[in-house]
Design goal:
Blueprint: E1 2-4, E2 9-18, E3 21-24, E4 40-44, E5 47-59, E6 62-80, E7 106-110, E8 118-121, E9 128-131, E10 134-145, E11 148-164, E12 172-176, H1 187-193, E13 196-202, E14 207-226, E15 229-237, E16 239-240, E17 244-245, E18 251-253, E19 265-266, E20 273-274, E21 287-290, E22 295-298, E23 307-313, E24 326-334, E25 342-352, E26 374-380, E27 410-414, E28 423-435, E29 439-458, E30 496-497, E31 507-508, E32 511-512, H2 515-525, E33 541-566, E34 569-582, E35 603-604, E36 611-620, H3 629-634, E37 638-646, E38 650-651, E39 678-679, E40 706-707, E41 722-723, E42 727-739, E43 745-753, E44 761-764, E45 776-779, E46 784-792
C-alpha cells in the first residue's frame, strides 16, 4: 500500500507471508549418522515480514526517512518413518524414563560391517521448533548544505532467537570394531548380539529464548570539493548489546570460577567421578548461571551426584558488555582530467560484527548442564560391569551400571566473560578508464584484515611432550603389537610397550618412560581408563570447547576487469588474483592440532581461491534483422554464457584414517584434529594420476610423500597445504522471442549448465591410511539442460 499523505509526505507499507513445506531425506541437522532414507524430516517453514516507511520532503534540501520493519521466520521439524517402537516394546533398559520411550534409538556401526564398512540411521530429535522474530527501526536524515551532502541517523534492532536444543532423548547406540573389549570383529554382528561399544542419551529437551539489542548511530558527509574531487567521510558507532537468555537458562563454564579443591576424583575401575576426601566435590565446578543467582540444582535420581551447585554471574549473558565501538570510514573519487573518462577511487573503513547466535554467546550454551545432561555408557556387553547373560544381550544392561549413571565427566562449552566484538578493516584503491570502442577497463587492489574473529579450541587439552624429552627419533612412529600389521607401518620394528592405566610399565626402544612421556604415550595408546581422568588443566572435566575471539585473518587481491555494454554485444571479463590467510576459517573450524599453539594453524583459508577468471556475454545474432516473416521466424536470436576458470580450494591431510594412533601426540584433543602426517617427499611428483580399475577416483597427489608421524608429535605437515583441482565450467543459453503482436507472443529458452559435461572434482580423501588416500571422491554437477517456452499476454 502506498499513500501520499500530502505532496511532501509519503507512506508505504509492505506485508509478506510465505509458507512452504518439504520433506528432507534424512533427519535434518541430526546427531547421528544417516545412510538410508526410511527416516525423513517434514520441514515446514512459514515466515512473515512487514515494513512501514515514511518519507518526508521537508524542504528541497532536507529529507527524512523513517523505517520500521519486522521479520519472523519459523521452522517446524517432525519425523516421518518407522521410528516408533514395535508392539511389545524394545528389549532395552533405557538409562532413564524421559517420556520418549516410544521411539527407537539411533544406531551407528563403524568398521567391518555391511554397506561398505559401516552405516548408521538416526531417528531424529523431533518435534523441534525455531523462531527468529526481529524488530528494526531506522531514521535517516539527508541535508544538502552547499557542497556537502550530509546524512545522519540511527539504526536500532531488537532480535530474538527462540529454539530448543537438539537432543536424541531416545539415545544413540554405537557399535565399533575398534572397541576390543566388546566387539566380535564385525559391527553388524555386534548389533545382533547386543555388544554395545557405547550408548549415549540426553536427559531433556528445553526451549531457550535468546535476546539482544543493538543501536548504531551514524554520520556521513559526501563533500564535493570541486568537480574533479569528492571526499566521503563517515563514522558509525556500533553499540552492541550482548546476548542473554530471557529465563536464565544459560549456564557457562567460567575458568576463573573453577576451584581445584572442589574437583571430584576418578574411580580407577570405570572412570566415573566420585566424592573427594574433603566431601566437597562438585562435577559442575566452575559453572555459573548467566544473569542468575546460581545455587543448588537437582539432577537425575540415581546419579553419583544427586544435586550440584553452580555460581552466579551478574552479567545477563555471562559476557560483560562493550558498547562503544567506533567505526570510521573514509573514501574519495578523483577525475584527474575532468573529462569523465578516468576515475580514481579509494576507501578505508572499519566494520564491527555482532556475530551470529552460534558463536561466543548464550545461544552456544543451549543444552548445557545442569538443565540438560548427556549420559554415555561404554562397553555394554554380557559379562562386563555386572551385565548378566540374557536373551537380549547387552541391551538389557543399558542403565544397569550398578545404579551409577555415567553423566560425568562432562564435555562442556565455554564462552568468554567479556564481549570482544570482531571487526574487519577493509581498504581498496581502483582505477577505471574508458577506452575506445566503448570498453571500460578497471584495475583495483582490495584488501581486508579481520581481528578478534571467533575460534574454537580445547581448554582441557593435555600438554604435548617437549621435543627435548621425546624418546622417538625423527621418522620413528609409535609401533606396538596391536598396530604392527598396519600397512602404513610395514618396515618398522615394534618399539613401544604402552603404559597401563596407572602409567606404569611403558617403554620406548627398551628404555622405560615415566612422567609426562608415560602420560602422553598412555593416552596415545588408549590404555588409560579415561582420558578425562588424566586431564590436569581442569580436573573433573573432559573436553572444554572454548569459543574465543582470538583469530585473525588477512586478505589481499588484485582485481582486473573489462566491460563493454553497447550495441548487440554485452561483454564482461573479470580476473582476481587473491590470497586469504587466517588462523581459523569458521567458528566450527576444528582443523587445529594443538590448542596451546594456534600460530601453527595459520595458513591459507579454507575458502582461499587464488585465481578466478569469469567471462560473461550476451550477444544478439546479426541475422535477419528488420521486420517481416523471416525476422519473426529466423531473426532476433540471442546467445549468452558464463565461463569460469578457477583454482581449487585448499585442504589438510590428517591421520584420522589410520589404524595406528590418530591422537599421535597423546594430548586428548577431542575438539580438533588429532594429528597430521610427516612430509617425506614431494606430493606433486612421482605418481601417476590415472584412474585405477577400482571405483576410486583419480589420484590427485603422491601418497608416498606422507608417512605416519614421528611418535608423540603432531606431524610436520601444516594446515591446508594441498589444493583441490581447479575448475573450468561453461554455461550457455540460447533465447528467442516469437512475437504475435505488440502485447502477446512466446519466449523460448534453451539453457545449459556445464555445457561440455566436464568432470570437475571438488572433494578428496585426505585421511592417511585407506587405499583411497588422496583419491578424488566427488564432483560438481554434470551437464544439466533445460528448455522453456513462455507465453506472455
Amino acid at each position: 500500500m502506498d499513500h501520499n499523505l500530502t505532496n511532501n509526505y509519503r507512506l508505504t507499507f509492505r506485508y509478506i507471508h510465505d509458507s512452504w513445506q518439504t520433506v528432507v531425506p534424512s533427519p535434518l541437522w541430526g546427531n547421528g549418522t544417516t545412510n538410508f532414507q526410511n527416516v525423513t524430516t517434514n520441514f515446514v517453514g512459514p515466515g512473515s515480514s512487514f515494513v512501514a516507511r515514511l518519507n518526508a520532503n521537508i524542504s528541497p534540501t532536507l529529507l527524512n526517512e523513517f523505517v520500521a520493519s519486522y521479520t519472523g521466520d519459523h521452522i517446524f521439524l517432525t519425523t516421518r518413518g518407522p521410528v516408533g517402537l514395535p508392539p511389545g516394546g524394545f528389549p532395552m533398559g533405557f538409562i532413564f524414563d524421559n517420556g520418549f520411550g516410544g521411539k527407537l534409538p539411533a544406531i551407528n556401526l563403524s568398521g567391518n560391517a555391511a554397506y561398505g564398512g559401516g552405516f548408521g540411521q538416526d531417528s531424529g530429535y523431533f518435534p523441534w521448533h525455531n523462531a527468529n522474530p526481529t524488530y528494526t527501526y531506522r531514521d535517516n536524515v539527508t541535508k544538502v548544505l552547499g557542497t556537502h551532502a550530509l546524512q545522519f541517523g540511527a539504526y536500532v534492532v531488537f532480535a530474538q532467537k527462540n529454539e530448543a536444543n537438539s537432543p536424541n532423548v531416545q539415545g544413540i547406540l554405537n557399535f565399533d570394531t575398534s572397541d576390543k573389549l566388546v566387539t566380535t570383529g564385525n559391527a553388524f554382528a555386534d548389533l545382533l548380539l547386543g555388544n554395545v561399544a557405547s550408548y549415549q542419551q540426553w536427559t531433556a529437551e528445553k526451549q531457550y529464548y535468546d535476546r539482544y539489542k543493538n543501536v548504531e548511530p551514524y554520520f556521513q558527509d559526501d563533500w564535493r570539493i570541486n568537480k574533479r574531487l569528492t571526499l566521503n567521510l563517515g563514522l558509525r558507532v556500533s553499540m552492541f548489546g550482548t546476548y542473554r537468555e530471557r529465563y536464565q537458562q544459560a549456564f557457562n563454564f567460567e575458568p576463573s570460577a573453577f576451584n581445584p579443591a572442589n574437583s571430584p576424583v576418578f574411580d580407577p575401575n570405570d572412570g566415573s567421578l566420585q566424592q573427594n576426601a574433603g566431601n566437597t566435590a562438585n562435577p559442575l565446578n566452575g559453572f555459573v548461571q548467566c544473569g542468575g543467582k546460581g545455587g543448588t540444582f537437582p539432577l537425575v535420581p540415581g546419579s553419583n551426584f544427586p544435586t550440584v551447585s553452580v555460581g552466579s554471574s551478574s552479567n545477563a549473558g555471562c559476557l560483560k558488555g562493550h558498547l562503544f565501538n567506533p567505526a570510521p570510514r573514509i573514501g574519495f573519487a578523483f577525475d584527474p582530467k575532468g573529462d569523465g573518462k578516468t576515475a580514481i577511487r579509494g576507501g578505508y573503513g572499519i566494520f564491527y560484527e555482532h556475530t551470529n547466535g552460534n558463536e561466543g554467546n548464550t545461544e552456544s550454551l543451549e543444552g548445557s548442564a545442569p538443565l540438560v545432561l548427556t549420559a554415555t555408557q561404554s562397553n555394554v556387553v554380557v559379562g562386563r560391569n555386572g551385565c548378566l547373560a540374557g536373551p537380549n544381550g547387552g541391551y538389557a544392561c543399558i542403565g544397569a551400571n550398578g545404579g551409577a549413571i555415567p553423566f560425568f565427566p562432562l564435555t562442556v562449552v565455554s564462552i568468554p566473560n567479556k564481549a570482544i566484538w570482531p571487526y574487519v578493516q577493509q581498504w581498496n584503491l581502483n582505477v577505471q578508464k574508458e577506452l575506445p570502442y566503448h570498453f571500460v577497463l578497471s584495475a583495483a587492489y582490495v584488501g581486508s584484515k579481520g581481528t578478534h574473529l571467533t575460534l574454537l579450541s580445547n581448554a582441557n587439552q593435555l600438554l604435548p611432550v617437549p621435543a627435548s624429552a621425546n624418546p622417538y627419533s625423527k621418522g620413528e612412529p609409535i609401533v606396538t603389537a596391536d598396530n604392527a600389521n598396519d600397512p602404513n607401518l610395514v618396515g618398522h620394528a615394534i618399539n613401544t610397550v604402552c603404559p597401563d592405566s596407572t602409567l606404569a610399565g611403558g617403554s620406548v626402544n627398551g628404555a622405560p618412560v615415566s612422567g609426562q612421556v608415560a602420560l602422553n604415550l598412555a593416552v596415545a595408546c588408549g590404555t588409560v581408563t579415561s582420558v578425562a581422568s588424566v586431564r590436569t588443566a581442569f580436573p573433573g572435566f573432559n573436553n572444554i570447547n572454548t569459543l574465543r575471539d582470538a583469530a585473525n585473518s588477512i586478505y589481499h587481491s588484485l582485481q582486473v576487469g573489462a566491460q563493454r555494454t553497447v550495441g548487440d554485444l554485452t561483454l564482461s571479463v573479470a580476473y582476481t588474483y587473491s590470497h586469504s590467510i587466517d588462523d581459523s576459517s569458521d567458528r566450527s573450524d576444528t582443523a587445529f592440532v594443538n590448542a596451546y599453539n594456534f600460530a601453527t594453524n595459520r595458513a591459507s583459508s579454507n575458502f582461499d581461491l587464488r585465481h578466478n577468471l569469469a567471462i560473461s556475454y550476451v550477444y544478439g545474432l546479426p541475422f535477419f534483422k528488420g521486420t517481416g516473416f523471416s525476422h519473426a521466424l529466423l531473426g532476433g536470436w540471442q546467445i549468452s554464457g558464463i565461463t569460469v576458470a578457477q583454482t581449487g580450494t585448499p585442504f589438510s591431510v590428517t591421520t584420522n584414517g589410520l589404524n595406528a594412533f590418530g591422537d599421535n601426540a597423546g594430548v586428548g584433543n577431542g575438539t580438533g584434529t588429532g594429528s597430521r602426517p610427516d612430509l617425506v617427499g614431494n606430493p606433486r611428483s612421482g605418481f601417476s594420476p590415472n584412474q585405477d580399475p577400482s571405483e576410486r577416483g583419480p589420484l590427485a597427489y603422491n601418497p608416498a610423500a606422507f608417512a605416519v608421524p614421528t611418535g608423540l608429535t603432531f606431524g610436520t605437515v601444516g594446515r591446508n597445504t594441498l589444493t583441490l583441482p581447479g575448475r573450468l565450467n561453461f554455461d550457455f543459453g540460447l533465447f528467442k522471442k516469437f512475437p504475435i503482436n505488440e502485447k502477446t507472443g512466446f519466449d523460448f529458452r534453451w539453457e545449459n549448465f556445464n555445457l561440455f559435461n566436464h568432470t570437475q572434482f571438488n572433494q578428496v580423501n585426505a585421511d592417511l591410511g585407506p587405499s583411497s588416500f588422496l583419491h578424488l571422491t566427488n564432483t560438481h554437477d554434470g551437464r544439466r539442460m533445460q528448455l522453456g517456452l513462455r507465453f506472455y499476454f
